[in-house]
Structure formats: C-alpha cells, structure tokens
C-alpha cells in the first residue's frame, strides 16, 4: 500500500492511461480524484472503479477544463475540502492533432498548446501552490510522449507541445524541489487506446494507407513487439508518486517498449 492515506488528482482520468493509473493508485491505498472535461465519461469511470470494489470514501469525480483557470482553482478547492489536500497530481489531459505542416491551422495550433502546455502548466501551478501552503511536499507527474523526444512528420504541433512538457517538467522540478515537491514525467510510446482508431484513420488519409495498416505497422516496429497498453503505465506512475522516487527530480521516464533511448 505505497500510497496509503495519499490523495491523487488525475486529469484526463476518465479513460485510457488516466483510468489505468487511477486503478493502480486505488489498489495502493490512495484516494483518487478523476478530473475530466467529460461528465459522462467521469460517471462511467467511477462506475467502473466502484465495480472493482472501491468505495466512495476513496473516490471523487470533478469536471475539469484545464484551459479555464477558474475551473482549475475550483477543482483544487473542492479536493482540499473533501480530502484535506492534494499529495499527487498526474497531468494527463491532452489533445492530439495531425496534419501536414502546410495544412496546420491557427485554431489547431492554439488548441493543442492551450490544453497540452498552458493547461498543464497552470494546473501544475495551482496544485503546487496548494502543496506549498500545506507544507507536506508532493509528487507531480507530467505525461509527455515519445513525440516530445523527436520531430515526426504530420504531427509538428503535437510534437512541439510534448517537447514543451518535457522542458517544463525540468524547469518546474528545479524550482519546486526546495518545497519537497518532486516533478517528473512519463513519455509513453504508441499506446493502444480508442484514440488510436482516430489516429489510424488520419494516417490512412494522409499516407494513403488502408485502415488498420498503420496501427499494425507501428506495433510491429516497437522493439518489445507490440503497442503499449494503458496498464503498462501504472507501475511507472506508482513509482513516481511513491516515496521510492524521493530522490528522482526533473526526469522524464520513457515507457515505450524500447522505441526511444535517452
């Protein structure tokens, strides 16, 4: 029970990697706040978690728009009122975009940076302020991507946002460690979530491929021999949230089946 009596907030926590991390944290004794922009998805996630035997005393759902500072502040206040403070933040909310450089629109560019960078940073800031005021330190985990490690055709804006996440992770970590707040990141590779059906369709459009072919190929190209699954990320997220990582600062851990080495 490595997270016993700890309270965690997981943005984008209603699906995919976010939900898998919520499941792992609950199994380790944490209180879990599922923070997501989709109320229906929050209800479904909470029903799933209750169905796995977790009681409402451990669970809280919050509608959160990371692009809205008032929404972020209300989330922090609500969690403080319910659980007495936040010990762990997983900045997982993100959006994806794909188009050739010559077709990138200002709206697409602004949307991706608003959620993936600005929203992540100001959520981190609001939670870190509460952690500093509480005086008990904490753990902040930013979800980056292998796309932040290198440029990739068709996803120039997304790659740039995730590179910014890695950079912000380093800078925020160096600033906040004096308060006992460890900031680190996780860089997933290709992960088999429902979103990949949309990604595959976009590759089919831009690379003139049959539906399903790109997903199959990227899975085969991973050295581990398959795409990642959401539950592949629970262990890394648990490590970075627990006391085991107290001396880990400003790192972004690659969890990608061997796709990227750094």
From TrEMBL:
Keyword field contains Transferase: no
Record flagged with keyword RNA-binding: no
InterPro entries: NAD(P)-bd_dom_sf, SDR_fam
GO terms for MF: D-sorbitol dehydrogenase (acceptor) activity; oxidoreductase activity, acting on the CH-OH group of donors, NAD or NADP as acceptor
EC annotation from Swiss-Prot or TrEMBL: 1.1.99.21
UniProt KW keywords: Oxidoreductase
Enzyme kind, highest EC tier: oxidoreductase
Similarity field: Belongs to the short-chain dehydrogenases/reductases (SDR) family.
Database matches in NCBIfam families: PRK07067.1 (NF005472), PRK07231.1 (NF005559)
Protein name listed in UniProt: D-sorbitol dehydrogenase (Acceptor)
Source organism per UniProt: Halomonas fontilapidosi
């Amino acid at each position: 029970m490595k997270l016993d009596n700890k309270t965690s907030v997981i943005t984008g926590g209603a699906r995919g990697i976010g939900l898998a991390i919520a499941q792992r944290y609950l199994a380790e004794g944490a209180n879990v706040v599922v923070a997501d922009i989709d109320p229906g998805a929050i209800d479904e996630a909470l029903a799933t978690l209750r169905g796995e035997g977790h009681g409402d005393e451990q669970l809280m759902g919050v509608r959160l728009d990371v692009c809205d500072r008032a929404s972020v502040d209300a989330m922090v206040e609500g969690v403080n009122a319910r659980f007495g403070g936040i010990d762990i933040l997983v900045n997982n909310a993100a959006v994806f975009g794909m188009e050739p450089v010559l077709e990138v629109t200002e709206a697409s560019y602004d949307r991706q940076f608003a959620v993936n960078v600005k929203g992540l940073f100001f959520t981190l800031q609001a939670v870190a302020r509460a952690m500093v005021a509480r005086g008990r330190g904490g753990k902040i985990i930013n979800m980056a991507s292998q796309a932040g490690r290198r440029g990739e055709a068709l996803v120039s804006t997304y790659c740039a946002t995730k590179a910014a996440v890695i950079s912000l992770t380093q800078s925020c970590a160096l600033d906040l460690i004096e308060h006992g707040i460890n900031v680190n990141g996780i860089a997933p590779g290709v992960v088999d979530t429902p979103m990949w059906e949309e990604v595959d369709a976009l590759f089919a459009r831009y690379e003139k491929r049959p539906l399903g072919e790109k997903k199959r190929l990227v899975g085969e190209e991973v050295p581990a021999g398959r795409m990642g699954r959401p539950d592949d990320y629970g262990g890394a997220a648990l490590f970075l949230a627990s006391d085991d990582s107290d001396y880990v600062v400003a790192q972004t851990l690659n969890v990608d089946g061997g796709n990227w080495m750094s």
